[in-house]
Amino acid sequence: MDLVVDNEKDARLERIDFNNLGFGRYFSDHVYVSDFNNGKWSNGEVVPYANMPFAPGMSTLHYGQSIFEGLKAYKDFKKGGLNIFRPNMNAKRLNNSARRMCIEEFPEEQFIDALCQVVQTDKIFLPQEKGQSLYIRPLVFGDSNFLGVHSSPTFKFLIMTCPVASYYESGLAPVKILVTHEYARTVEGGLGMAKTAANYAASLYAGRMAKEQGFQQVLWLDGSQKKYIDEVGAMNIFFVIGDEVITPPLDSGTILPGITRDTVIQLTKQWGLKVNEYRISIDEVWEAHKNGNLKEVFGTGTAATISPVGLLSYKGESITINNNEIGKISAKLYDHITGIQHGLIEDTNNWNLHLDI
Ligand SMILES: Cc1ncc(COP(=O)(O)O)c(C=O)c1O
């Protein structure tokens, strides 16, 4: 496909402060767009990033039929070019979310091709420092103009990109997390396993309460009994208890199947650690802490890769984990995964999609 865009002419590059990128603040110059109409997805094209017209009756605005993905491209410090980390997993997860939300699936091959087109077009936006990256946000939503609760017959698929800072601009640092027993993000049979707008809308109020009390994130328990651990706002969660690495299993359907979660499970197994996907309760975590067996807690996600947890607070009682220091397993995982992403550690699992650009 011919790209009728001119990087130099369209670039907003000069306005970007690469030393102060933050997250989601700056957009690259282009967006990939494909439309689902009359039973099929259009070929798609890369167009300048600009406001789009929408009808006031657009179904997504009313009924939230919207799904998205999040992945990153990293500068490869050895080979040059860049690496997109495990994009096939995002293509598959997008379609799992699509099925749950009655959205038309997007062909996996076209998804990967679209990623490559948009990243290549805006390659000048790829940040050059370790830890920084080009965040890639695919989005699909129903765009028919018709009121009445229904599944939209038409959809729009977009990919936008943003140069983003390292999550830890001043180094890997433990976070404080509030375990909420008041609010629920999802329940069994709900939408938890889908990366859909509603889950994030459902999380905002508890997130605000947590921030007002000095916490960075909320840890969600299962929505019905408020007993078992589900996940954090935008991360999966791991506990190192004794010599076991424990994370909640996905079969409840209430947890987003994180790609970093899968990466961590595979790596820790390959390193010979004991890994247990097990429905752990908050009481067991507290008990393990009392017995001195709770060695590390860390979150996993594309944004931070590994996020060590220094403090958990539940029903007014706080526990400090590993003296609020970064645990050995957390640090090793962070170094190893970011090393692979930047081409500094051999990618023995073939996780990177490398582009020479
Ligand atoms: C609710 C939720 N859980 C977990 C994750 C971690 O998923 P991943 O590792 O694929 O980024 C995310 C991030 O996208 C998320 O939003």
Question: Based on DSSP secondary structure assignment, what is the total number of beta strands?
Answer: 18
> Class of the largest domain, according to the CATH hierarchy?
Alpha Beta
What ligand molecules are bound, each kind once?
A: pyridoxal-5'-phosphate
Structural class comes to: alpha+beta
Explained architecture:
It is a single chain. The chain is α+β, with helices and mostly antiparallel strands and 357 residues long. The protein folds into two domains: 160 residues, D-amino Acid Aminotransferase, Chain A, domain 1; 167 residues, D-amino Acid Aminotransferase, subunit A, domain 2 (D-amino Acid Aminotransferase, Chain A, domain 2, Alpha-Beta Barrel), CATH 3.20.10. The protein contains eight helices and 18 strands. The strands form two sheets. Strands 1, 2, 3, 4, 5, 6, 7, 8 and 18 form a nine-stranded antiparallel sheet that branches. Strands 9, 10, 11, 12, 13, 14, 15, 16 and 17 form a nine-stranded mixed sheet that branches. Strand 16 and strand 17 form a beta hairpin. The longest helix has 16 residues. It is globular, with a radius of gyration of 21 Å. The N terminus is likely disordered. The site of pyridoxal-5'-phosphate has 13 residues, from helix 6 and strand 15.
